[in-house]
C-alpha cells in the first residue's frame, strides 16, 4: 500500500499533539504540532534524535524524552509500511489516547479499502462495488465517531481552544450547507428543503463548529424521516437573533423519549442502545459557546422540530468569506459525507465516488 499524505493530513493535521509517520528510517509525514516541536522537519526528513529510539524499534514502543524543556512520552504504533510516533505530555492520562488509537486503525482500514476499490475496477469485478460501498460507509461512521470524541473532549474545557469566533455570513453558510445536503439526499430518493428569504446575516461565530452543529441535527432529522422521507431547515430573523428550525416528517417523539435524550446528553456515558449521547452534547455545547439556546419539540405523529436561537453580534468594516464545506481543502474526506454517514444510504459511498 502506498503512503497517502492526503489521508494522513485529513486524519491528523488537527490533532493537538505532535506526531510523525516514519518509514524506511525517514519522516514521511508530520503534523503542524510536530513541526512546532521539531523545526528541523521543515528542511529535513531525518528522524529527530529525541524520537530515534522508539521510531526504529519493531513492534509497539514507548519512551520518555525532553523536548523544549518539557517531558513527553513518545509512543510508537506499528502501521503498514511504517510507524506512527506520537508525543503526549508525560503527566497526561493514557486513557485520553482512545481517539488517537481509533485514527491509527481507521488509517489502515481506509488505505486497504481504497486499494480494494482500485483492484475491483482494474480487474472488472464491479459487482463487488456495493459491498465496498458498505465498507466505506462503516469507515466514515468510525471517523465521525472519532471526531466527535475528540471534539467533545476539546469543547468540555472552560475555554475551548477549538472555538475561534470570526466575522461570517450565517445565511450564506446555511444556504451552501443545505445545497450540499439536498444534493446527497436526493440521490437516495429523499428530500431536504431549505426555506429562507434572508440573503445575508453578518455576525460573529465559528463557522466550522456551526456547520458541525447543524449537520448533527440534520443527520438526526434525516434518520427520523427515513430514506425516502422529507426533512428541512428554515432560517428566520427576529430582531437581533437568528432562528434556525430543523424538522422532519418522521413519527416524532413522546415526552419520555425526549427526556431520556436530554438526560443522556448530560451524562458522559450516554445511554446504551441509543448511541453515546455525544451528538446532542456537542450541539448544546456549540450553541452555548455562541450564546444560543435550543428547543426540541417531539410533535408525536408529525415529526420532531429543533429550534436554535443565536444572537446576531454586529460587525463593522471586516472582510467576510463564505465558509468552505471541507475540513481540509488540500484533499481529504468531505465534511458532508463524514457528518451524514449514519443517515445516507450506502450508495453514496461507492469507491468510484469517494476516492
3D architecture notes:
The chain is α+β, with helices and mostly antiparallel strands. It has two domains: 5-155, Beta-Lactamase (2-Layer Sandwich), CATH 3.30.450; 166-327, Histidine kinase-like ATPase, C-terminal domain (Heat Shock Protein 90, 2-Layer Sandwich). 39% of the residues lie in helices and 22% in strands. It has eleven helices and twelve strands. The radius of gyration is 22 Å and the shape is globular. The model is unreliable at 267-276 and 324-331 (pLDDT under 50).
SSE map:
Blueprint: H1 5-12, E1 19-23, E2 26-30, H2 32-37, H3 52-56, E3 61-67, E4 70-79, E5 82-89, H4 98-122, H5 129-155, E6 166-169, H6 170-186, E7 191-195, E8 202-205, H7 207-225, E9 230-238, E10 241-248, H8 255-266, H9 278-289, E11 293-297, E12 305-311, H10 335-339, H11 351-354
Parallel strand pairs: 7-9
Antiparallel strand pairs: 1-2, 1-5, 3-4, 4-5, 6-8, 9-10, 10-12, 11-12
Helix pairs in contact: 1-4, 4-5, 5-9, 7-9, 8-9
**How would the global form be characterised?**
globular
β-strand amount: 15-25%
User: How far is the first residue's CA from the last residue's CA?
Assistant: 15 Å
Which class of the largest domain in CATH terms? Alpha Beta
Rounded average pLDDT: 81
Q: How many β-strand runs? A: 12
Task: Count the domains.
Answer: 2
Describe the sheet with the most strands: 5 strands, antiparallel
> Any idea of the CATH topology of the largest domain?
Heat Shock Protein 90
Going across the biggest sheet, name each strand in turn.
2-1-5-4-3
Q: Helicity, in percent? A: 25-40%
Looking at this structure, what is the CATH superfamily of the largest domain?
Answer: Histidine kinase-like ATPase, C-terminal domain
**SS summary, helix count:** 11
